[in-house]
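Weekly modeling sync, notes
Attendees: AB, CL, MP (scribe)

Item 1: holo prediction request
CL wants a bound-state model with S-adenosyl-L-homocysteine before deciding which constructs to order. AB pointed out that an apo prediction alone won't tell us much about the pocket. Agreed to run with the ligand included and paste results into these notes for async review.

Input as submitted:
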Amino acid sequence: MSVNADPQELAKFSELAHRWWDEHGEFRPLHAINPLRLQWIEALAPLRGSRVLDVGCGGGILAESMARHGAQVLGIDLAAKPLKVAQLHALDSGVEGLDYREASAESLAAEQPASFDTVTCMEMLEHVPDPASVVRSCAALAKPGGRVFFSTIHRNAKAFVYAIVGAEHVLNLLPKGTHEYAKFIRPSELARWCRDAGLDVLELKGMQYNPITGRYWLSGDTSVNYLVACAKPQ
Ligand code: SAH
């Protein structure tokens, strides 16, 4: 079976892996948005005592924060170096209930279907060749009655200007080449993949950013960054 991954994308994240936990470095936006997404997840899927899978966990910013909130978390990614960084950081911070594994969503879904109360897959779909396959696998990995969360970037002119020109070239929030416009995903496409995977879409939220104050917040405006919350029927 061929792996649903782009080696160049994985190499890009491996190259920067040692910078993952630098709050002022290349992954600053992920640190900045983490409290916001964590709070949103917690409100829809209480973390304490739950079994959570974080797909495309990278260096573990979200995975570790969910474990700190009392979840039993497994983080998976296909880039070896970010995973190593995630493991070392977890050891260093002494967080319990946190494991990492090099695996794809597809392979884990074949091995452990219907095993997780909550599945999160944030800022990852726009880096894979076949995002619908990842959505199907996330749905398969959730238990009936579980929750599945995604976040990604819209594909329209505004998202091009904000997420690529603005974030990578003007504000230097992200390294140049982080995102490729053609891989961005319209909310309607993501919602369709979710429904086709048997999930009910519960919420669609936009994420706004003010470059002057550096503040992020959730809103109804999904024109650039957005998040989707789904439920897997019982
Ligand atoms: N989800 C994390 C990291 C986002 S960066 C967060 O939001 O904080 C995107 C991550 O997706 C990187 O760690 C990259 O290695 C991973 N990734 C890219 N393609 C992947 C694939 N096919 N399978 C698993 N992980 C992948």
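Recorded for review: The two ends are 30 Å apart (CA to CA).
Action items: CL to compare against the apo run; MP to circulate these notes.
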